[in-house]
């Protein structure tokens, strides 16, 4: 029986994988069990954020040593989804997702955390277009299969990391007669995230294939997936997919739940997802329950209409601080205050991921000691 | 009998006082009743934040028209305390504090909000030194008298805006043979805030005069005032003091309460101060109680030890975003999430103001409809 | 005979007009002679740069006192073109353009500086569209007439300040059923600058009316005006136009010249414009010639192809510092190094203004003492 | 006879060493000849700039493959001095310094470029103190010996990269009872650079050992070395020293020269150093001479008195952009405009390195084809 484990580890800087190395060397983690990484590094989260590439290079070098495979191959097998930017109270950390196969294991809980992954390439000229959406959808379906999740309703969180267009890539594409959708790197990241969200929605049957075209991306915000979490970054050239859900076919004590956040002030959504896992915040999660929490995953977005509950915000008009850095810092302040821990994954750029102007939260917690 | 009122108003930009103008023209606010302003403008909160000066100039010009006094005189009579930086979900707004004297009024509640103000000049070379501390203490005592608050325990919030040193002022002072404590503008703002906090603590009998010397500022963090809120800015040359407390001698329906925040994740402090005012967040303040809240005032600080509850934060090591902008965004995200409103005053630079690495929160609410 | 004068004045902060006040009070400048201001304030130059509004409010209040006209009227008569952002070696300053009429004056030089101004409103929904281009062209023609410049070749510099779209204005326009060309404030500033440049080119007969349509803006960079300098900002709602040229009908000793800069490294363009005015940099302008220089006006642009002379630059991929702040700082470093003075007007956003990836430089100098 | 070569290479991102790899694989560079690297990466140059660590990790991995030595050893043998921040027109690049020993070589020019390197550890608690100064001086003397330069006047450029204090390191040192000079990371970088400059001045006999004490660092700016170039960064724990000079004992066609820059506008210093190498800028270096230039190394500093030639600058008062980023962008704009190439090393933080408020420039050029 397969069993999923999640190790949430801290880093001293983006090239510091010593915590994972210690677990591998000490025998707690088997290098070959590592199937995915989701983490927050301390960059700016934008096009020129190289903390993600630095971390990934270091990770793959470490795994390469222990697995005896070249890093260049591992990078195509193990999704490493990093969101740059630990604004405010967030703490740089990474969650290592492992799958072990224990023939002797028996089921302890009705359902337990199940994990599946997949990769799909996308060309620069397709970024943010229908071809991109479809490549994501295919990869998500493949990851669901791979996880052995039978019901789509048991999927709670689909993380996709999409490539984006840099000035250099755009120039090359134009020279090759294949102009990208936009040459503005920050805009291309937004289109890539939109395509990822549409792809997840398509794979999860949340929208129909004829419901959208290229123009719907970043325009028709009624289209959304409340379970999609999309990042985009300069360091990847393929879509990387991680599906997280619950399944009766898996052992282990972890379970995942998710909730929508209707806007950036929706503390209720945070309480809801915790309640779903049997955790009562009062108003903060008590210490013994904090220890049950293995991973907190949040997507959020500065409301593009320029106000929140009728009051003007200034995130979109700020030339000094990128709007995504603003919203990550604010929502992380809220969520970390409820869970009492800064090691949370809060990622901006939630276009089409959850309600417009809001986002989503997923939490993985142990069922052991629950109540 | 005197009665305090607080009008919380939004602005479209730092030079937009149209909301106040409308209230004055419409007769809701009498210009001569305005005694103080506390607000958040959308600058960066640093030395080069001119949104505060812009707002102040516009405000004084408006009051000048209605009061028939020159703006240059009003600016020495009406404290206008602005904190720059509406990071994340914060909404630019200002609270207008008014005192009206109604001989026919009778007491409705055992105690009600009382307001006192005072001004005290400080020379550039004294900024962040004992002479600065003492000038603040004297002004605070004067403002308490002025408010008619008899017990020091009834003081809940003392706002002081202190001058700081700019590169230009520092050069002038050095040329005059009176070197300032530091020539680094950001550092001088920190020293000024420390002096302000020490001054409040001295005036409120929280510390004894022989307990500290110049070296204690920004060094001995066991010295703190849980009721001090200090700002510093390039646009003022005097300490400006606003004392807020409760008094049986005042009419009106407002009351103020305060609580400490032990660190940036202390959501409990937020719930406590609300509970003190009879407001139950569940987890968010219900809409009818949101309407009772007149003003939310928060001070916070990036933990200088570099971690929060054992987990590293990156605010102090960030060359791109000033640490105060980080912490304001995070704590505002938390507090706004609980009260359901982005119109909150969250100000960074809480050195010696509440617990080290934490800060304080004060809320003014109507007692009408309370439970 | 009309005579143009230019006073280049420093400011201690964006609300400091004391240098102009002193000149007016001392009789050097007659308030009624002031026809335009061009200056650099120390904001960020973006949508949330309020230093421009602050300066303008202070200027108009000052002139209002001396002219006995309301500021609200003056603001519609005197173009006040401010570019925010004094990156690097630039020094905050403003040039006051004055016209005096001296019946007794006689011509000293074949041609002398001539100034004309005009205003033209533009609706939010028209920003960055053909209607915007045409409103600019009409205003430029009117300003040329107003300056009495007969030959278009004698026009050397046309400054236009255009309104842009903020999140708030965009929402209002959408609500009114008149969607703006873009809701992204930074993008709208770019479209506004493009429209301004097209308008100048049209007025100066550099392009024909059928040569472009809405889609040409920010797309067809073969269309450009080597004499257009366009700014855009949140604080104006009309196009404000200042035409600077030379004319035999004007007295005084000032003359203007201009040159294109082919890219951000084109030091040759700087030497050329100086040579045109009889000033030889060797490699820096000698002190006695520095004193002849009355005003230096530069437009520049980060090369959108991502490289300069074959080497990659990083301005467009930087999430921390806006690309316009990057290029202003670099080009100002070059120009200030040649002229030996940081009081230069260097403004970013040179789309369609001079060669693609480059820009333009205009200098006004006294002909007295020339060689 | 030993021969020095310098290869100036571009990178697509901080982890891109493909240009060097190509030269090694193609046989142009022998991996064992590489003795030092000086480069500019596209980070922010501050404490949280990880582009330097990323580049270094990638470089050492590459050399490790070709040299068959572990990267952990190479990092202690090959100084890799990176300055983060390619503001404005600067292009990310790195110069690879190689020494080859050719028994058959004969001297072509009276003197040619000579290179020496050395390493010296420094503890966190010593950073910015006399012990730090002395450790640097010892290492510089060792590198001069190592280069075989006999006369101190033949040393033209001494690059030192010093460790600094991060919040984490400071906390560890304090816990160990060894408090660092400062716990403010940016301030510790400044102290480290000062110690490096003092160490170079000491080694080059520019100052006497009794001329200074701990308090002189960052205070007595009459102490300076016109040949010191000091960087500081979070990624090194030893002082890394590279000495560049000319020597009759070396073959090859390269030669180095240096000049002081009296302030940030000193274009004359740039022309001087070029003239010293027989290169005449007119006003830009002609293309055939551009090709002779192998490396341009510049240090600069925002004038701490707040003005340049009597005009206020705003670099030190800017909360949004670090002052070092400002000055690098400006000075790079000037130097790149003269040499016609953005691949220049411009590093901020020039405290005690050249004239106060100014800095230094060194250029390495081929003597072949000179005139």
Describe the structure.
- The structure is a homotetramer of 371-residue chains.
- With 371 residues, the first copy, chain A, is of the alpha/beta class.
- Chain A has three domains: 1-104, Cyanuric acid hydrolase/Barbiturase, RU A (60s Ribosomal Protein L30, Chain: A, 2-Layer Sandwich), CATH 3.30.1330; 107-252, Cyanuric acid hydrolase/Barbiturase, RU B (60s Ribosomal Protein L30, Chain: A, 2-Layer Sandwich); 253-366, Cyanuric acid hydrolase/Barbituras, RU C (60s Ribosomal Protein L30, Chain: A, 2-Layer Sandwich), CATH 3.30.1330.
- Helix content of chain A is 29%, strand content 26%.
- Chain A is built from nine helices and 15 strands.
- Chain A has helices at 18-26, 51-67, 71-74, 130-147, 167-175, 185-203, 267-276, 287-290, 323-339; strands spanning 2-10, 34-41, 80-84, 93-101, 112-121, 155-163, 228-233, 238-247, 250-251, 254-261, 293-299, 307-308, 311-312, 345-347, 359-366.
- In chain A, helix 4 (130-147) packs across helix 6 (185-203).
- The longest helix of chain A has 19 residues, at 185-203.
- The two termini of chain A are 25 Å apart.
- Chains in contact: A-B, A-C, A-D, B-C, B-D, C-D.
Secondary structure topology:
The structure is a homotetramer of 371-residue chains.
Chain A: E1 2-10, H1 18-26, E2 34-41, H2 51-67, H3 71-74, E3 80-84, E4 93-101, E5 112-121, H4 130-147, E6 155-163, H5 167-175, H6 185-203, E7 228-233, E8 238-247, E9 250-251, E10 254-261, H7 267-276, H8 287-290, E11 293-299, E12 307-308, E13 311-312, H9 323-339, E14 345-347, E15 359-366
Parallel strand pairs in A: 1-9, 2-3, 6-7, 11-14
Antiparallel strand pairs in A: 1-4, 2-4, 5-8, 6-8, 10-15, 11-15, 12-13
Helix pairs in contact in A: 4-6
